Amino acid sequence: MTVGTDCDKGSYCEGSNANYPGAATKVQIRPTPCPAGTYGAPLGSSSVTACKACDAGKYCDIPGQIETGGLCEAGFICLTGNDRPGPYVKDYNLATSTSGVCNVGY
Q1: Which of 16, 37, 66, 88 has its CA 20 to 30 A from that of 54?
Q2: What are φ and ψ of residue 41, in 5° steps?
Q3: Total Cβ atoms within 10 A of residue 100
Q4: What is the DSSP string of 28-67?
Q5: What pLDDT, on a 0 to 100 scale, did the predictor assign at position 98?
Q6: Is the distance from CB of 45 to CB of 52 less than 8 angstroms?
Q7: Are 89 and 97 in contact, with CB atoms under 8 Å apart?
């Protein structure tokens, strides 16, 4: 194949923008879904850096998501890049975490 197609939304295709001998435009590369905790790489992305961190207050648990995920659970500090709806760290510490259970009194 000398002319490939753009990589799907929510995925990236490393090397898809490279120039290969005999390639008229793009080279067909197997897509890699954006990892859990991210979403929304645009059509034709060639790097994982095109995947956006899941929005604060939401989670992205399925690799290759096109849009940001569902709402995080109540009582859970959920900044960006979360890959599950509930707490998975025992105590929240702004210096070391992006998520966790709300501290006592909050």
Answers
A1: 16
A2: -60, 130
A3: 19
A4: ----EEPPTTEE-PPTT--SGGGSEEPPTTB---STT-SS
A5: 59
A6: no
A7: yes
CA 44/CA 103 separation, integer angstroms: 42
Take residue 64 and report the two structure tokens written for it: 């290759």
**Res. 9: pLDDT tops 60:** yes
pTM across the whole model: 0.71
| Single-letter amino acid, residue 77 | I
Q: How far is CA 87 from CA 29, 81, 103, in A?
A: 36, 13, 12
- DSSP annotation of 16 reads T
Residue in the structure block whose two tokens are 């067909």: 28
Instruction: Please report, as a single letter, which amino acid is at residue 16.
Output: S
Residue with the bigger pLDDT between 27 and 29: it is: 29
**Residue 87 main-chain phi, psi, to 5 deg:** -70, 140
* Residues contacting 21, CB < 8 A, separation 6+: none
**Beta-bridge partners for 71:** 58
